[in-house]
Amino acid sequence: MIWLIIVLFKESIELIIFMLTGFLLVKCHSLREDQTGGLSNVLTKAALPATILMSCQIPFSWRIVSIIGQSAIVSLLFMILTLVVSLLVPHIFHVQGSLKSIWIGCCTFSNILFIGIPIIGAIYGKTGLITLVTYNAFSNLFLFTFGLKLYSGQTQFEWRKLLFTPAIFASFLGFMLFFAKISLVGPVGQALTSLGNMTAPLSMLITGALFAGTDIKKVFRRLDIYQFCFTRLVLLPIILVPLLKLGIQNKVILGVMVIAAAMPAGAINTAMAELYAGQGERASEYVVSSTVFSMLTIPLVAYLSLFV
Description:
This protein has helices at about 1-25, 35-55, 60-90, 95-110, 110-150, 160-165, 165-180, 185-195, 200-210, 215-220, 225-245, 250-260, 270-275, 280-305. It is an all-alpha fold.
């Protein structure tokens, strides 16, 4: 339990430092808030796809194929259930207008990729990371279909165009390379790894930059901030974890899904909300606040779910 808290605390501090960097860059007039749209494009169309592609660069084995298959079924059901809960909760708290879309997005799409990799890697090793990559593929599928509709207001999808969305295409390509037993080595692999390593710093820097435009004192006096954090960090795990424990026999897959349920709002929501709706500042408030509070809630949820 102690080492779990240490890993979580270390990763959370790093993310907060990235957010603080973006915040200070804006406050020192070295970065303008209107430049975050360009950074969001770099994140969603270059850094994130590189992360997804390189996450699939693991040695082929039929045992891993079996884990991927099980993880795929669980991940699909998990995302559907999370989405259903996220759609219902705003009605309970009477969330209206454009804020409702941000609530739903930030509840549905968590920070599992950025915070989860070091935590899951430390607990479950490569098997856990395989499960995480599979879950992330489905999360991105939902993000760039339902999430895109949610933030942009689009009512119809061009499925051919959607397939070539960088993150979705990277997921398909990554699994194709895995099954074809093709490894990306040398300068290509190193370049993509370095590009992918920008994902967490860049996403949190954007979040911090957009958060700089808010009145911090007013943000943490608002009731909706605490309602959202309660929903994302407490209510969702309370609903999801018992169902996960009831339906999943594999302890590694169960552990990954439990940690995913306990994660704060994903920083990708900030980029998507800014890019498609000009609401990145409001989304950043939920990402920052839930990230801070998750330092207390994630160890508690993980301990009660996995070790009790």
